[in-house]
Design goal:
The chain has 579 residues and is α/β, with parallel strands linked by helices. 63% of the residues lie in helices and 10% in strands. The strands form 2 sheets. Strands 6-7-8-3-9-10 form a 6-stranded mixed sheet, sandwiched between helices. Helix 4 packs antiparallel against helix 5, helix 5 crosses helix 12 and helix 6 crosses helix 11.
């Protein structure tokens, strides 16, 4: 027997919200019982009031009916409110977890559709709080209405059962014909939206290179596939819906005709004739509604499956004990890394060691695996074999929040968030202002920030669009240095910098070494390497050389010093001495 611990996260969250659904089910039962008030009222009016001519009886019956209908409307309103609250609780339980899984998947699979899982969660949440779930709650009452009809007249009950089986068969046929096509349409739509998002993110390239026409052709491929599949499913669904609507109308008329025959035969009263029509309509309504809303049902089910797969593929990290602040000793032991599904390793048998306060330069041709090794160092990816340790602890198993406070990382592609400069530097944590300013000063960007329209409170726009590339990189460096990290990994930190920025970077690297911080610099620029103590040369993912900077550069046939960075380093030592 499966325990809650063995259930998937999505099912666990639904189980945690089960009290809301049970309450809604109880309210649904009361609503369906109260619905019988209208048929009973009609039965009593035709069979008793009309024949007796009693106005007081009619008045009391009418008041009872209005009370029942008012109670039913109130319960229906409360049922909707309960389900909405259940959807809110489900969102509180899962939305943060879905975002975390999306971040993890985006690191493992950079091409994954961004934001799709969150849209899927919203789609599923809206379904379980909308009319679709009401249909599921009302459906179990259809047999009860048929039983009531059978008690009034076995013939009417048999007719209702026959029509119910026919509609149910059509509903199953609708599921067989429509579901697979709608799933195909949903997948094609997700690809289309993801491609459109990627195009918008790279709008400047599209405009500069005149790529819009070709991109539209590529985008329309998935878009047309989606529209074709949707049209196909809609045609089939419309045909079945029309057939079901015809059968429902025909059934009501046939039920009225059968009731009239029984009245003529004096088997039932005239009230039963009209009550049978009402009960049949109510009994068959959930089936018709289910067919009419089948697209929402399929969409919600597909969304559920996608969210479930995402959470299962990206389980939460187990809680670990909080480790003390590391000194910065970094070691790599036989590190090998394969991309998912790849046959050749991106990195193979990488090994090195750094003491606190040492700086390592990662060099090599493009595609050598330098950036991948940098991501492994900060725990973004886990090695396929081997281990990277910081002060003896495996960085891949370190608690991500705790570890993130101990390291600084500047990726090759700078991504800033649409908020203030201060919030970006502080990593959106509630830190002290002096820590933000200290990181900015260490990165050499404090004066630049003060020159912005609102200083540290300047809104930088989506992706930092209000800033130049060099300013974004230097603010990203300040973010990496926030919190005085023990390990700092910088991937191409000077790629967008001018001469002034390079000098500031040199000062920063010199100051970090003086503070005893371990620094890893990935760079193609020879000048940046003057700030490092050791160099690891990678080619094809394999380490070919590792050792002191002068020795490795000499073997590579490179000059040992570049004046601009050397001057920056010296200035950094001077500022450190004055401090």
């Amino acid at each position: 027997m499966r325990t809650p611990r063995n259930l998937g996260e999505l099912r666990q969250a639904l189980r945690a919200c089960s009290s809301y659904f049970w309450a809604a089910a109880i309210f649904s039962a009361a609503i369906n019982v109260l619905y019988l008030a209208s048929p009973l009222y009609m039965l009593q009016v035709y069979d008793r009031v009309v024949s007796s001519g009693s106005v007081p009886t009619l008045l009391m019956l009418t008041l009872a009916l209005l009370l029942a209908l008012g109670t039913m409307a109130t319960l229906d309103h409360l049922r909707s409110r309960i389900l909405i609250r259940g959807g809110l609780r489900l969102d509180r339980l899962l939305s943060s977890r879905v975002i975390a899984a999306m971040v993890k998947q985006a690191n493992a699979l950079p091409g994954a559709a961004r934001g799709q899982a969150l849209r899927d969660l919203d789609n599923f949440r809206q379904f379980i709080t909308g009319n679709g779930i009401h249909t599921l709650f009302d459906a179990p009452w259809a047999p009860i209405y048929i039983v009531v009809l059978t008690l009034l007249s076995p013939l009417l009950g048999a007719i209702a059962l026959l029509f119910g089986v026919m509609l149910l068969a059509l509903a199953i046929l609708n599921e067989r014909l429509v579901s697979a096509t709608l799933v195909e349409a949903g997948e094609a739509g997700a690809r289309s939206y993801a491609f459109a998002e990627a195009s918008i993110r790279n709008s400047h390239v599209i405009e500069a290179l005149g790529m819009l026409g070709g991109l539209l052709d590529r985008w329309r491929r998935d878009r047309n596939w989606m529209l074709t599949a949707q049209a196909k499913a809609s045609d089939r669904g419309a045909a079945l819906s029309s057939l079901i609507r015809f059968l429902r109308l025909a059934m009501q008329s046939l039920m009225l005709g059968a009731g009239a025959y029984l009245v003529i035969d004096r088997a039932v009263t005239s009230g039963v004739m009209f009550v049978g029509t009402l009960l049949l309509a109510r009994a068959l309504m959930p089936i018709e509604q289910a067919v009419g809303s089948w697209r929402q049902v399929v969409s919600a089910r597909a969304a559920y499956d996608r969210v479930n797969r995402l959470l299962e593929a990206n389980p939460p990290r187990p809680e670990t004990i909080s480790l003390p602040r590391p000194a910065g000793a970094l070691t790599a032991q036989s590190v090998t890394y394969y991309l998912p599904g790849a046959q050749r390793p991106v990195l193979y048998n990488v090994a090195f060691g750094l003491e606190p306060g040492e700086a390592l330069g990662l060099v090599g041709p493009s595609g050598a695996g330098k950036s991948t090794l940098g991501r492994l160092m900060v725990g973004i990816h886990s090695p396929s074999a081997g281990v990277i340790r910081l002060d003896g602890a495996n960085v891949a198993t370190w608690d991500r929040t705790d570890f993130g406070h101990r390291v600084g990382y500047l990726p090759q592609e700078i991504e800033l968030f649409p908020d203030t400069v201060a919030a970006n530097i502080a990593r959106f944590a509630s830190g002290k202002d002096e820590d933000i300013i200290s990181a900015a000063m260490l990165a050499g960007v404090h004066e630049i920030i003060l020159g912005l329209p609102h200083g540290y409170e300047t809104q930088i726009g989506e992706g930092g669009t209000n800033l130049s590339g060099g300013h974004r990189q230097r603010i990203g460096l300040a973010r990496a240095l926030y919190g005085d990290p023990s390990l700092v990994v910088l991937d191409e930190p000077s790629s967008n910098l001018d001469m002034e920025g390079e000098i500031a970077l040199g000062k920063c690297l010199g100051r970090l070494k003086e503070l005893g911080r371990t620094v890893v610099v990935i760079s193609h620029r020879q000048g940046t390497l003057n700030a490092v103590d050791k160099i690891l040369y990678l080619q094809g993912g394999t380490p070919l050389m590792f050792g002191p900077r002068k020795d490795v550069l000499a073997r590579l046939g490179q000059p040992v010093a570049v004046p601009s960075i050397a001057a920056g380093q010296a200035a950094g030592r001077e500022s450190g001495a004055r401090a």
